[in-house]
UniProtKB/TrEMBL annotation:
This is Phosphoenolpyruvate-protein phosphotransferase. It holds the Pfam family PEP-utilisers_N. It is found in: Cytoplasm. Residues 140-209 form the PEP-utilising enzyme mobile domain. It comes from Mycolicibacterium alvei.
Amino acid sequence: MQYAPVIRVSALPAIEVPAGDIAEADRPVEAGRFAAAATEVATRLRARAAHATGAASEVLAATAALAQDRAWLGAADKRIAAGAPAVRAVTEAVEQFVEMFTQLGGLMAERVTDLRDIRDRVVAELCGLPEPGVPLPDIPSILCAEDLAPADTAGLDPQLVVGLVTTLGGPTSHTAIIARQLGIPCVVAVSGLDAVAVGTMVLLDGTAGTVTADPDASEAAEAVAAAQRDARAARQWAGPGATADGHAVAILANVQDGAAARTARETPAEGVGLFRTELCFLNRDTEPTVDEQAKIYGEVLEAFAGHKVVVRTLDAGSDKPLKFAGHPDEANPALGVRGIRIAEGNPGLLDRQLESIAAAARQTGTAPWVMAPMIATAAEAKSFAAKARSHGLTPGVMIEVPAAALLADKILEHVEFLSIGTNDLAQYTMAADRMSADLAALTDPWQPAVLTLVAITARAGAAVGKPVGVCGEAAADPLLACVLTGLGVSSLSAASAAVNGVGAKLSQVTLQQCRDAADAVLATASAADARAAALAVLG
Ligand code: PEP
Ligand code: MG
């Protein structure tokens, strides 16, 4: 909960682009000016990357690399050589690539935001204007924007930008995920934001996903004080995860590399419930070798030596394409060859990854569990489990497809554990793109249909005594985490920043309260009613 004034991203002012061409003799100087501007922008982004850590650093480094990408730099150079002033050349070259990415389909959408971001920075540099983007406020403020480039989100200072509100983006878009990792309360897909002037006081409730402009000042202060009390309790919570009456629920962390795992180790997280390995390789053109992979995986195992670590095999495709995973050209990538389905056409990729995980386990002395993403059938689970066991690894699968939730009992005949990915489970249950701002209400994990599938899965696990965890964003919501516990899940894995809040809330309620809340939620017919029903039982 935050109560603070609004700031906005400064846009590039309208710039007069000279219509005429420049003289031939001046073109080399113009080309030099352009190269220097692009280099300056990349250098600044790299410097910010060096100051950031984990995913934030990677996103900034990736954007810096895009600023130096030969393809669009070459396209702009060509235009300058033909007489275009640098500003026009940059604008046209970027638009050419934006069009190309847009035609390639939704999964390149975030690259488009990045490219336009770089265009504006380079144009500002060429015109001697201040760099567009996020302002540095003097006092803690709430940043309102249509959307943020991942690089801008990654570079936010959580001391000064204490909240983030966007008109676009879904709850599981990368902007939201990075903000959560930085511990910045974030509400996405908010309409009516444009009417809120800079400096207006707003009350932002990141948990309930609400933003109130100009609220009653004393009520807002009271709400903030209550939230601060909760935050203090959260900071004091030291684990391990359990309800007030001692029912154990492991509280784990979601990580994407060694740096994130080391950050997670500083929280009371008892292990890693989801290591998103594909995020280590988003910028790679070629498949990393077994040795390279083993070293990267080993960093995470070392950070949690002797603890539970669940490594997910590459979940490539859709919103996370990997250049070396050979994605086919598809009209609908979210329903296409992604996750485990890639193994069908490229079994070597999965085998080499399992070999790398096994090597990391040998080298570090910590044996992880492994799980496959996007499992839809028991046969896929069986085949994955056989491969994992042949490498001496303990196999499980993610439940992200409604078909897999409905047949969780059949899948459990082949694997040792299940982990429910509520982000994709909501997307596929509700037939709503998780990246779409317009459909954010449908992809809300409080949707009773989604929670019914969680209940079916948890019951299947309990029937055979095998663990069923949740590792989607649902596990990061303290109230929902209690409901998931009541539904019978045995572990909750969330971004490091959410670990304390979830653990603290769970420690304040009894298992019976969690079960009562779960029953109440399953009796509702809307996400709003489900949340209200849980709140009534759990406070
Ligand atoms: C999920 O789908 O809930 C999940 C944890 O996987 P990802 O968000 O990486 O798709
Ligand atoms: Mg998923």
